[in-house]
Amino acid sequence: xxxxxxxxxxxxxxxxxxxxxxxxxxxxxxxxxxxxxxxxxxxxxxxxxxxxxxxxxxxxxxxxxxxxxxxxxxxxxxxxxxxxxxxxxxxxxxxxxxxxxxxxxxxxxxxxxxxxxxxxxxxxxxxxxxxxxxxxxxxxxxxxxxxxxxxxxxxxxxxxxxxxxxxxxxxxxxxxxxx
Length: 179
Hints:
Helices cover about 60% and strands about 0% of the residues. The protein is mostly helical. Helix 2 runs antiparallel to helix 3 (about 55-80).
């Protein structure tokens, strides 16, 4: 991106404006992210997923909430900058958003969110692979080999962080696998 310079006449016209919203939608999105992150971090203080280790279940939601709030603040700061060109929304934004939301729903179903309806759970491993595949469909230029490697790294890291380190009792394998 290039920074646009303004001449003296334009600078004089803009001198009384102060800071303005270049992208109000981006500003509101950042504000929503910040509010969600702060509320998630505040809610982490009453959440105790690992009662055997005091405070262990608090760290992951607290840090996640703080990172989401920090990301929201960065989006707010980017929306307030002056001299940027407005590019407009991408044509495939709706399609990508649909696939990402579908990936989240599939992951929730894979962990057993809808087990009462008789839908079998895929477990953590299968859920991450299926959710990654749904999100992969949102992209344009992703290679299958890179997708498989990143999904495997995400499965391995999630297993180490959630099951081994935090000791959460998540369904790791599919219910129909009988492992």
